[in-house]
UniProtKB/TrEMBL annotation:
It comes from the Bacteria. This is Uncharacterized protein. The chain crosses the membrane at residues 18-37, 49-71, 83-101, 121-138, 150-172, 178-196, 203-229. Keywords: Membrane, Transmembrane, Transmembrane helix.
């Protein structure tokens, strides 16, 4: 019995550390992607206030995600759950800010290097994928095996703009490579999880499907005449 308890404890510890590692990996990817844009002069700290609000919101979520995983590694599940309710409110704020900025970026013509329909589809589908996966994770919060994996997938999808910037850095930015990059990050998380449990949890498959659908919609929506007309017809607004 003691051996079984010891083995279970070891598995739980490795799993928690792996999820924290993945959270830190997402932060590192964001630093590389957005750091490159700053280094290349594509983005600047002289951007409008709403750009900074959006950036702080998304970076704040990555920090919050690392904190939540750190609490789990330390075994402070009570604090993790209390902060989880705050996280639900934070997620609502992310969706509101993300949808607004996706629209306002287009009407202020700050969507380059993407055209209007592509920029709008990229931002809105990115937020939609996060919202759907987060909602599923929140509703399944009492089933920790599903909750933690769906939350990881939600955050991986939310961090997608960093992947796009990383691909641009290497001159490989297409919708196909972008989608494959997101799915590859989920696959990395899934592979590490498999190495610990020797099985693939179905939550990862939901994440992969969500990422594939997000990528497909980002590539398809700009080609649809009604969506393209809507995006191109948005009235200019003051910067």
């Amino acid at each position: 019995m003691a051996t079984l308890v010891s083995e279970y404890t070891g598995i739980v510890t490795r799993e928690r550390r792996w999820f924290l590692f993945m959270a830190l990996l997402l932060v590192a990817n964001a630093v590389v992607g957005f750091g490159y844009f700053k280094y290349a002069g594509i983005s600047t700290f002289a951007s409008p206030w709403w750009v900074h609000v959006h950036a702080l919101t998304m970076v704040g979520w990555l920090g919050f995600f690392v904190l939540q995983n750190t609490l789990v590694v330390r075994g402070d599940i009570a604090a993790h759950r209390r902060l989880g309710m705050l996280g639900a409110l934070y997620a609502c704020w992310i969706v509101a800010v993300g949808m607004f900025v996706g629209w306002y970026e287009v009407v202020t013509e700050r969507n380059r290097p993407f055209d209007r329909p592509e920029s709008l589809a990229l931002n809105w589908m990115n937020i939609l994928a996060f919202a759907v996966l987060f909602l599923a994770a929140f509703r399944l919060r009492k089933r920790s095996d599903w909750h933690k994996r769906l939350m990881m997938c939600a955050t991986i999808c939310l961090a997608a703009p960093a992947y796009g910037r990383t691909l641009i850095m290497f001159g490989a930015r297409t919708n196909t490579t972008f989608t494959l990059y997101i799915m590859a990050v989920i696959a990395i998380a899934m592979t590490g999880d498999y190495a610990i449990h020797r099985r693939v949890h179905p939550a990862w498959l939901f994440g992969l499907v969500a990422a594939a659908l997000m990528g497909s919609l980002i590539g398809t929506l700009p080609l649809l005449a009604p969506f393209a007309a809507f995006a191109n017809g948005l009235a200019p607004a003051p910067r």
